[in-house]
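Q: I'm writing up a methods section and want to include an example of the input and output format. Could you take the sequence below and give the corresponding predicted C-alpha cells, formatted cleanly so I can copy it straight into the document?
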Amino acid sequence: MKKQLLSILLFAGIGQFTSAQVYTKGNMSLFFGVGASNTFANKLSSIGEGASNSFGPYIIGYQFHLSDKLTIGLAYTNQSASTGKVTIDNGTDNVSFKTNFTFSTFLSQLNYSWYDNQNGAFVLYSGLSAGTYTLNAELEVISGNKELAKINSDISEGLAYHITAIGFKGRFTKTSKLGAFAELGYGYNGLFNGGIQYTFN
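A: Here is the clean output for your methods example:
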C-alpha cells in the first residue's frame, strides 16, 4: 500500500512539473542583447563616401510577468555610428570631415506570449514598444579648414518605437534561471536582436 501511494504521488509530481508554465505570474527577467540593421543605421548608410560604421544597438532591460502570457518591461538601447567622409570645397579652401553619432532609446514594452511549449521550456511571443530617442551628432574633421564645417555638434530628441513580429525566449533547462531570447521585428531595436536573460523565480 505504501509503495502504491508513493507511486501515485511520484507520478502526480512529474505531471505537475512537465505541465508547468515556462514563465509564471510574478517572474522578473533581466536581459542583455544586441540588434542589427535598425532604422537609424539605414539612414546613415547613404551619407558621405563609404558605408557608415555602425555598432549595436546594444540592448539592456527587464521584464515583469503580469501573468503567464502578458509581460511589461523597460529597455534601453545604445548605438554608435559614423558617416562616410564628406568634403566641402568653396574654390579656395576645403575641409573633409565625418560625423559621429550616438543614438539611444528608452522603450516601454508590452509582450504577449501566444505559444508555450511547456515540456520544451520556451515560449513564442509578439509585442509593441514605445518611448523616446536621443541622437547626439559630433563633427570630426579629417583634414582642411575646420571653419568651413558649419556644425560642431547637435542633439535631437523624438519618439521611438519597435514592433516585435515574433520573438522566442526560454530557459536553458526547465529549472535554469539563465536563458536566451531572439526577436524579428521592425524599429529601433533592429530587424533582428537577441541575447541572454536571467529570470528571478
